[in-house]
Amino acid sequence: MTPNNEETKKKIVDTSQKIQEVLLLLVSDNDDLRSRLEKEAAERTKETAELRDRLDKETQDLKDRLEKEIAERKADRDKLQAAINDNASKGDDAMNDLRDLIIQERDERTDQAGKMDTFFKDENEARKKNLDDVNEWIGVENAQRQKEAEELRERMEREKRELQEFIDKDNKRMADKIDAENNERQKQEEEMKKRLKDAQEASENGTIQLYKKMQGENLAREAEIAELRDRLNKEKAELAERLEKEKNEMKERLEKENQELKDKLANEKQFLQGNIDGNHNHANKRISDLAEKLAGMLKNGNTAMKDLTDRMIKENELLRSLMSQPLSIYFDAYRTEDYELGGEEYLTFTGTRSNLGGGMDAKSGVFTAPMAGAYMFTIHICTHDMKKGLLSLRCNGNELASFYDQNHDSNHKNSMVGQSIVADLSQGDKVQVYMYTHTGMMDKRSNWFTHFIGMFLRPKDFMLGLENGLEVTNGH
User: Which helix (H) or strand (E) covers residue 63, if one does?
Assistant: First the structure.
């Protein structure tokens, strides 16, 4: 074998290895593309389900609101019918008494009967006028219900258009993305074809087999993409068909219910017309009295509601003003038992003697500033026998001040030690007492030596910008 043949064979082997590496890279890219397409399809399915659930929920809410309105309207109608029946019953009894009285005094009260007849005619005209007012009110209510139904129909149309636009945009984005990936894949295939053509003389059989395999995989991938696109188009069509069907059903249901309501109102109007024409003066007067009483009650109720609202607003403003005043926040936390655990933790307390503003949490030992401003804190403790006292006041974990007691032989005594500071805090800042190593404190149920006290001195920017020119700064 000549050196030229060996070199040619070596080049063929190198070229085959490079082709295999390129094919492996293309297979890996193909798997990544398939996984991304599956992920995109899953996300699209999830978004479609969420949109469908949202539409079902809003449709159900609209149905519940419409049923509630119909129930309230029916309850008002029943109340009005009961009142009219009651008035009609009382009017019939009074009419019978009046008829007996007229029969007994017919001869003596001929002139008076004529006057009564004129009076009844006038009252009947007034009652008819009241009926016209009731009819006008019913017409206004019916127009309002029709307006609400039209607004509901427009809202559903608008939401349908928005949903359709969102689906179209999303499908277009998906189609553009798939087309871009297909173009990229075609470009890679063209490059692969070119490389395969260059290496065909060296490894014709292996290259042809690999190319056929790659071509088959690309055809399968294109078939999967086409299937996915058909599935998306099918789901889109099904969703649009379902939305249109639900819209038509809702429209038909609303029109049917509206027509039923109109028929009921017409029947009730006719029935009420017959009952009202048969009522006499007593029934008219009774209804007028009830209407005046109801109007007075509504007027008094509105006045009382307005007074109560004004009073609550004034009380709220007063509370806000009081909360921002100096010394409107303070606390006194205490302990009732010894502490001998060695320190390196925050101090907690048994309870509080006072806690105006609710900023102190005794169980955790944390004071949270309800308002921004200047606060004064004072802490006193009694060191335990054979222990020292080394503590610090911290704000949001940062040390503000420390105090220390260890001046006795072997610490074999008790002594009181304390510290006081004034600090500017922001709303929500947290102040705690931290204990260092070997700290011990003495407290008994009858002797409360440990006290942590805080007071709100003044709010932030207190007395700044007064009209007389006097200003109190923070001293910085």
Answer: helix 3-104
